[in-house]
Amino acid sequence: MLDTMNLVILIAAGLVAVSVFTSLVSFRVGAPLLLVFLLVGLAAGEDGPGGIEFADTRVAYFIGSIALAIILFDSGFETRFSTLRMAAGPALTLATIGVLLTAGLIGTAAHFLLGWSWVEGLLLGSIVGSTDAAAVFFLLRVGGVHLREMISATLEVESGSNDPMAIFLTLTLVSMLAVGLSEEAAALTLFIEFARQMGLGLILGLAGGYVIVQIVNRLPLEPALYPIVVLALALVVFAATSMVGGSGFLAVYVAGILCGNVRIRQEPALKRFQGGMTWLGQIGMFVTLGLLATPSQFGDVAVAGLALAVILIFLARPVAVWLCLLPFGFTRSETAFISWVGLRGAVSILLAILPLINGLPNAQAIFNITFLIVLTSLVLQGWTIRPMAGWLKLIVPPRIGPVERMELELPGGADQEIVAYRVHPESAIAHGDRIPRWARPVLILREGRSLRVQAAGRPQANDLVYILTSARQVPVLDQLFAAPSQAAHDPALFGDFPLDPEAALSEIGAIYGFEVEAEDQGLTIREFMTRELADDIEPTDRVPYGNIDFVVRAIDAEHGIEQVGLAVEHIERAEPNLPFFFSREEIAGFTRRSYRRLRNRRARIKVLKRRSATAASAEVIATDKADAEPKPAAGADPSKAAE
């Protein structure tokens, strides 16, 4: 027994270590990291060089469920209320209606391609209906792709909130197939189960998050114990909600959101610990699911699996995203990118285990097809995220900021932290500006040597400076230490020269010779640009007026406009002209034009009818008049008759 235990520990720890080491290769060649973890599991499995035989579906589902609960709690913990407010509408629409639409389209395709029943087809669609939270969070937070915040917020909230929907659909459909419910009773059962699971998940998630915060803030524990008790209580919320018939995955995600957006003791330690546990959960889940797969069986369903993967990537997901985002004013390029970032991952494979556990017909085919869809998605979509964002012109300049932030747990709830900056060679500090009095440098690293602040003198370019400050002052320090000087701004991106955001729009119009409309009289440049750009404001955004462009040079932490530039030549935004994903404005414009053409056509028809009626009336009158005139008698002289 001891030998078996040691062998299991050796294999498990070795696979985790190999997965971590292969991440270096992933970063170097640009491969999706989670795909690498999955391939490690496949290589170690029975069809790979490792030759490990692992077929225990219940153990795999148990490991995957715990790992997913940890990932979702950390995802919620890292989601800000501001992000949730910004993207709640589109993200939650995608997480509910979007999953249903995707599941329905894939279910229809599976029904006709494979000859399965409608419920079996919908089951497969539900399994692959949600995006993978681990894959998307890695892309947004580690992958180095800098997107507009509205896009990244929508993807982040969607990926964290659509897993419970897919899990609910899968569990319900598996139960229906296991007990042999008729297709007629399916709709009613789905509705009742949805209300019960989502309602309980939301309520118990909020209650569980509140209890976690109260326990952590009131109990005087050893600092090292706080992360452990928080994670343990999060798993309690997950398990308890599942036991009473609610969605445990939704509950743990909601609890994470609540805990991460209130003041909680030892928050810096919690974030570090949960970050490590999330990585461990991702590695464990992907490697375990890779071990469970048997690639030698994929040949039987390879054609159907690849066909369904193509339908999912190029039809089902794009159609669902387009219909869901249509009311929210996304552009064609933004809709196209969000549809492309529909990565499928470990959650889909985890859900594909449920038919195997319940012994359903076609269970092995469902698992193998799901695995092929996930592999295709990670390879095709995961490897092309950055090129796609670049082609669609959605990458924005990276937000400037500190190299590292270390939040401090101080008595009395003092909001202090240590931030580390690498001094930008073109920054104001590198050019001789003074450090503000309220910012207290504590250490300077220069050329690998640690220097006291008094002995180091003024900070120099590429110095690493550690500063004690309050969190609300960090944006100001960003501008001083990490931002290039104004002269270093690229005119093609930020305009030819800066303007005062409080300058009146009418004054700029008088100087540059363009007419300011009556409704814009009295507006400042900041007010005008804020109105035009709404809430989604990022550096380099342009607002044309007359023959010039106003350009956003810098924004504050709340996405308010801090600096404005002026480009003397109007530049159209060079987005690809996609022949699909028509936006709300384009459809509205097309509808207005079509209605106008129809109205004009009807008006022309009425005019023609009136003209025809007038002409016909004139002809009738002329005929009647001719009939009313006396006619000469037969044989009479017409000239005398006229006399």
Automatic annotation (TrEMBL):
UniProt domain Cation/H+ exchanger transmembrane: residue ranges: 18-389
Stretches the record annotates as Disordered: 611-643
Keyword set includes Membrane: yes
InterPro entries assigned: Cation/H_exchanger_TM, Na+/solute_symporter_sf
GO biological process terms held by the UniProt record: proton transmembrane transport
Record Pfam families: Na_H_Exchanger
Identification of the protein by name: Potassium/proton antiporter
